[in-house]
Amino acid sequence: MRNYELLRNWMVDTQLIPRGIKDKRVLEVMRKVPRHLFVPEKYRDDAYDDMALPIGEGQTISQPYMVAIMTELLELTGVEKVLEIGTGSGYQAAILAELAKEVYTIERIEALGENVREKLREMGYNNIYVVVADGSKGLPEKAPFDRIIITAATPKIPLCLTEQLNEGGIIVAPVGQRFSQVLIKAKKVKGILKEEYHTPCVFVPLIGEHGWKE
Ligand code: SAM
User: Fold this and answer.
1) Using a CB cutoff of 8 Å and minimum separation of 24, what contacts does 76-81 make?
2) Whose CA is nearest to atom 11 of ligand 1?
């Protein structure tokens, strides 16, 4: 068995800090959360490598750097109510839950959502709520949110999500074509999203009413 704590520190020191991740709380939590427990057993030793990995059902856990930059762009201070769209492995949700007050995370594939709900409960996370549904519609019954993160590629930021975001809130999402996107950070100012463009990226598609058709 590998020394996973050592690998986590190596990941932060060689993949995150050199690429400009600065938020101390984000770096700290990336050193802490056991990413290898969120990947299938056969990939555990690869969990801290600089890449996305398959998690079953044709889906992926995002590359560590992508998780870190998206989290940093959310500017979490510990008091926020966060919506994540695209639970996947549950790793990003765990990272968010360490840095915010509570996290609602939506997954459209039931097997993934159920598995993550069980895993997070076993790991002792009691501020993460996993919902199986079409997250492209958001979660109006729990709105408004202070932060929204979409961890699947979306052709645009659905209007309903802007409506479910508090004034001054932030949405982070990979926006663009089905096979290539740009990471966008958008802040809601006087009801309108002010967008900033960050790194190019490639995510699996958001499938649903306000995403792509299957
Ligand atoms: N955040 C995840 C993690 O930490 O492992 C990685 C997410 S993976 C790149 C994208 C996920 O979005 C997949 O699990 C996929 O099933 C899910 N997804 C795609 N369309 C969705 C939708 N409309 N609603 C909810 N989840 C969706």
Assistant:
1) 76/25, 76/100, 76/147, 79/146, 80/146, 80/147, 81/144, 81/145, 81/146, 81/147
2) 86
Fold (CATH) for 57-201: Rossmann fold (3.40.50)
Q: What is the pLDDT along the chain (214 residues), one digit of tens a residue?
A: 689 999 999 999 999 999 999 999 999 999 999 999 999 999 999 999 999 999 999 999 999 999 999 999 999 999 999 999 999 999 999 999 999 999 999 999 999 999 999 999 999 999 999 999 999 999 999 999 999 999 999 999 999 999 999 999 999 999 999 999 999 999 999 999 999 999 999 999 999 999 999 8
150 CA to centre of ligand 1 in angstroms: 8
112 CA: nearest ligand 1 atom: 14
Distance 107 CA to ligand 1 centre (A): 6
By most ligand atoms within 8 Å of CB, the mutation choice from 206, 210, 212, 214 for ligand 1 is 206
Nearest residue by C-alpha to atom 7 in ligand 1: 88
Catalytic residues: 62
Q: Does the pTM exceed 0.90?
A: yes
